[in-house]
Design goal:
By secondary structure, the chain is low in regular secondary structure. It is built from 1 helix and no strands. The protein has one domain (about 1-100). The longest helix is centred in the last third of the chain and has 14 residues, at about 85-100.
């Protein structure tokens, strides 16, 4: 059985049938639901981070939009890791560079 559709930010399941409208928000964290990050076509490795060639480019992937090709993704929700070791190393290098 496929995983439920869920909020990209907190993992709250979307229990209603059909697609969320542009104004739909997560009842847990209040994040927009009809966003690129919740779409089945979203792919960070593709051009404009979208595998749907006919879709207009969207700059803010976490903000509600009017994309007519939106398809709510069905996938496992994995929380984002708390710290990124590459980011931490880069921040340390910047601190050394600027003497902080």
């Amino acid at each position: 059985m496929p995983s439920p559709r869920h909020c990209h930010k907190c993992g709250e399941p979307w229990a209603l049938s059909g697609q969320p409208g542009r104004g739909e928000i997560c009842m847990n964290c209040r994040a927009d639901l009809r966003v690129c990050l919740n779409c089945a076509h979203y792919d960070p490795r593709a051009a404009h981070q979208c595998r749907e060639r006919r879709a207009e480019p969207v700059l803010e992937k976490d903000v509600g939009n009017f994309c007519e090709y939106f398809d709510f993704a069905v996938r496992e929700w994995v929380p984002k890791a708390g710290s990124n070791p590459r980011e931490a190393a880069a921040r340390e290098e910047l601190k050394k560079l600027f003497g902080d």
